[in-house]
Design goal:
The protein has about 160 residues and is of the alpha+beta class. It is about 40% helix and about 15% strand. It is elongated and about 65 Å long. The two termini are about 35 Å apart.
């Protein structure tokens, strides 16, 4: 793991105000590009103006921009940016190419958030066979089980209660 440390100390006249600015950059899993570990402390309102982040964003695949836009539309009060930052933190533990695939898959499934990306990421890492359908031809009374329409509003209620 390669970590860079930048330190800036400022002594303010006779008041002895000492300001220390630390910036850590993680380079291993982000394709050689620095990953700002300070990103978790970034204020969502300042997200677009952070200079290191703006430079990093230039190289992002379109799926990253699409996910960020979707999350901002879904949670405009800043939670969308915070959720996206959590997704970016996955670069600390997984290769960038794998994260990109997981984001694209999550977008196609309509679950563009951290949990959705993590689910897709785990599926990509450890793909499991889809279980075959159970033959219920000899039990016609059970043929409709699992085929009924899903009421998505129930899931939405659960999500709202958990926030």
């Amino acid at each position: 793991m390669i970590v860079s440390l930048c330190r800036l100390s400022v002594l303010f006249s006779a008041h002895f105000l000492h300001l220390v600015h630390l910036r850590f950059l993680h380079r291993e899993n982000s394709g050689g590009k620095p990953f700002p570990l300070w990103l978790s402390k970034t204020n969502p309102r300042k997200f677009d103006h952070a200079k290191p982040l703006r430079k990093w964003r230039e190289g992002w695949p379109p799926s990253y921009h699409h996910m960020l836009r979707d999350l901002r539309e879904k949670w405009p009060e800043g939670r969308g940016v915070q959720e996206f930052v959590r997704v970016l933190h996955l670069h600390q533990d997984y290769p960038a190419s794998l994260i990109q695939q997981a984001i694209e898959q999550a977008l196609s499934y309509g679950c563009a958030h951290l949990d959705g990306v993590l689910h897709c990421l785990h599926q990509l890492i450890d793909p499991q066979e889809t279980p075959s359908k159970l033959d219920l031809s000899d039990r016609p009374e059970l043929s409709s089980v699992g085929n009924q329409p899903i009421d998505l509003s129930r899931y939405e209620q659960l999500l709202k209660q958990s926030w």
